[in-house]
Amino acid sequence: MSTSDLLLARFLALHPKLIDLSLGRILRLLERLGDPQKKLPPVIHVAGTNGKGSTIAFMRAILEAAGLCVHVYTSPHLVRFHERIRLGRSGGGRFVDEALLVDALERCEKANAGDPITFFEITNAAAFLLFSEHKADVVLLEVGLGGRFDATNVIDHPACTVVTPVSLDHSEYLGDTVTKIAGEKAGIFKRGAPAVIAPQEPEPTAVLEAAAERVGASKLLVGLQDFNVHEDGGRLVYEDADGLLDLPLPRLAGRHQHTNAGTAIAALRAAGYGGLPASAFERGMTEAEWPARLQRLARGKLAELAPAGAELWLDGGHNPDGGRVLAQAMADLEEKNPAPLVMIAGLLATKDARATLGHFKGLAQMLFAVSMQNQLAARTAEEVATLAREAGLKAEIAGSVEQALREIASRTWPAPPRILICGSLYLAGEVLAANGTPPV
Q1: Which one, 58, 107, 411, 438, has the greatest CB density within 10 A?
Q2: Which regions span the lipid bilayer (predicted)?
Q3: CB of 303 closer than 8 Å to CB of 435
């Protein structure tokens, strides 16, 4: 176990609750550290239920293609904590290295002096400390949970605030309706800062618009109303009041990524980066990467277990709306290249598995239910299978992803199957680690 792992394990004991939304504890720690959050390059702050990470991935790819250095903070990680903190460098950012991470974590631990603080809060403070001490042109900052009381919401003057599509998730913390959740996400809007709202359903849009206007956002850009993105002739066309961009289709698979790409462009233009060369936006579409979001696994230990000619896909979508867009992506692939869809799924007990999996009724031929290895809140394979059957799917139990792949390979299919591993980012992390292809 590395030193950073030991430090992170100690942090888990500093607060009795893993999630306890509040700003008081982190503001206290940041003050002791010299308020590093006030010494950052321009910050683009991103909240939302789905699409946050992909939107940030597009922004990072565009900015780096223009030669800018970009710090990035995202969560959760898939395999190693270091994935959460990307330090900008010439030629492209890199995950924080072990020595820098250990130093920042130790200084945060010393400054905190044993006071109650959550794991996310103290590690978020470490990211701010690192970002303040290493030069960059931009910080892309992803909200962990909600927005209003999220530990990232300590940036007083962001260059831009963004809310990606809002749907039901984390209802025990954010509220049991989409409008309540949207109200929490809107907590990142700041007076004098542009606010960008991704294309989404009318109810959350109305809540977000009203909140941005109430707080005094300097500019309000609402998807479908103030900016639009659509596919035309195998190209991605982005339009707003500042003009049109004719771009390649995104490298990230799924039509929902068109929305994320459009939101990223709108955010960059609102934040003052609209003058980047057209080539940067073009390269951003084709170079953006975001692991475990409809990621094709073409090589690795698990990929080798799949039947010859099969496709192996991995996605971390874990809520009903994530299930909807993922099922749509699978339907689009089926239309272009028909193949039997076989699912391998594992979900947390805190997620609506029946609603998430229900979108695949009539689309998937079979689902193999698995349980995650190191998650206390993971549903058992038996529970996942039962909920899948209740959602109208044919389901069987497998002891592991490896066992499920071997079972799929042992059976006869009318054509090489399209295999989708899905249901949780935690499961996705286990898969990438077992496959030998962690994010790098």
Answers
A1: 58
A2: none
A3: yes
CA distance readout (Å), 416 to 255, 256, 303: 24, 26, 14
- Whether 103 shows a pLDDT value over 90: the answer reads yes
For 143-296, where are the E strands, in sequence order?
Answer: 160-163, 195-197, 220-222, 227-232, 235-240, 243-248, 295-296
Burial label for 223, CB within 10 Å (0-12, 13-18, 19+), is buried
| Shared domain check, 255 and 316 | no
194: Cα within 13 Å, side-chain hemisphere? 20
Q: Is residue 130 part of a domain?
A: yes
The pLDDT assigned to 1 comes to 52
Q: Based on the domain organization, do 261 and 319 belong to the same domain?
A: no
Distance CA 29, CA 144 (A): 18
pLDDT in tens, 246-289: 999 999 999 999 999 999 999 999 999 999 999 999 999 999 99
Mean local confidence (pLDDT), 176-204: 95
201 with 148, same domain? Answer: yes
176: pLDDT confidence band, cut at 50, 70 and 90? confident
185 and 106 inside one domain = yes
Structurally, the chain folds into a number of domains equal to 2
Cis-peptide, bond into residue 76, ω within 30° of zero: yes
Residue numbers of the domain that contains 184? 3-287
pLDDT at residue 20 tops 90: no
Q: Is the per-residue pLDDT at 172 higher than 90?
A: no
For residue 422, pLDDT beyond 70: yes
In a domain, 440, yes or no: no
Q: Where are the alpha helices (DSSP H) in 337-370?
A: 353-358
Whether residue 349 lies inside any domain: the answer is yes
* Whole-Å CA distances, 431 to 110, 272, 294, 399: 35, 39, 13, 14
Q: Report which secondary-structure segment, H or E, holds 253.
A: none
- Of 224, 256, 287, which marks where a domain is finished? 287
> Is 79 inside any structural domain?
yes
Maximum distance among all Cα pairs of the chain, rounded to whole angstroms: 64
Over pLDDT 90: what percentage of the chain? 90
With 80 as the cut, is the pLDDT of residue 2 above it?
Answer: no
